[in-house]
Amino acid sequence: MSKFLQLLFTLLSLMAIDVKADESIAQPPISENKNSARPDFRIINGVEASYSQFPFTVFIYSDLAGSGAVCGGTLIAPNVVITAAHCLYDGALPISKYNMYVSAGSVYNIENNNDMYFVSRSIPHPSYSPRTAANDIGILILSDSTTVSPSDFAKIYDLPISNDFTTAAAGWGKTSNDVNDTISDVLMTVPLVLSSSSNCKKLNPRYTNNDGMVICTENKNSQDTCYGDSGGPFVY
């Protein structure tokens, strides 16, 4: 599978910034926020992913005063992660960079991965609003460069999208619709089939095409992304 990340929103143009942290990173225990109304995605009926498939994927954990939120992200430079803007918020309030932890270089979540990083800067899209889905993209600048090889960073796909693309999503989110389900210990992936514009317009008259802010896929074989882990890569 080619390592190209399809961004659904306008990409912020930033340069990697190395800021060294003096603190040592303590392993944060994962405590999920089951009352969160955030539109986080999870992988339904997927399979375990290998590291070679998604070496650019990172795990993002936010400590929210006794509970927590989980997202995925994508490395595009040694210490630059692209994720969803709503992953940087707790409701309408931005999450402090001091409460965010990122792990990289492994298919395991942050509880089982010692390759962890602090966040130096948290930058949501300037036009993002927690009340809407528009411009739902953000960037994290990590305190140190990751150990991931530069050849494994994701590349941005910025050409027209064809319906015959073979695509996949990846994440550590919940793997079923059970409200009592917990997040996955390992990275999961699911293939997704792009749908035609005519089919998508039947369900959403405001939909234009897959080159806009939203990419429309078909739910085949009960395989899909759903609520539980978002911000991760959508690749072809």
TrEMBL record:
<dbReference type="InterPro" id="IPR001254">
    <property type="entry name" value="Trypsin_dom"/>
</dbReference>
<dbReference type="InterPro" id="IPR009003">
    <property type="entry name" value="Peptidase_S1_PA"/>
</dbReference>
<dbReference type="InterPro" id="IPR043504">
    <property type="entry name" value="Peptidase_S1_PA_chymotrypsin"/>
</dbReference>
<keyword id="KW-0720">Serine protease</keyword>
<dbReference type="Pfam" id="PF00089">
    <property type="entry name" value="Trypsin"/>
</dbReference>
<dbReference type="InterPro" id="IPR018114">
    <property type="entry name" value="TRYPSIN_HIS"/>
</dbReference>
<dbReference type="GO" id="GO:0004252">
    <property type="term" value="F:serine-type endopeptidase activity"/>
</dbReference>
<keyword id="KW-1015">Disulfide bond</keyword>
<keyword id="KW-0645">Protease</keyword>
<protein>
    <submittedName>
        <fullName>Complement factor D</fullName>
    </submittedName>
</protein>
<dbReference type="InterPro" id="IPR033116">
    <property type="entry name" value="TRYPSIN_SER"/>
</dbReference>
<dbReference type="InterPro" id="IPR050430">
    <property type="entry name" value="Peptidase_S1"/>
</dbReference>
<keyword id="KW-0378">Hydrolase</keyword>
<feature type="domain" description="Peptidase S1">
    <location>
        <begin position="43"/>
        <end position="236"/>
    </location>
</feature>
<dbReference type="InterPro" id="IPR001314">
    <property type="entry name" value="Peptidase_S1A"/>
</dbReference>
<feature type="signal peptide">
    <location>
        <begin position="1"/>
        <end position="21"/>
    </location>
</feature>
<keyword id="KW-0732">Signal</keyword>
<comment type="similarity">
    <text>Belongs to the peptidase S1 family.</text>
</comment>
<dbReference type="GO" id="GO:0006508">
    <property type="term" value="P:proteolysis"/>
</dbReference>
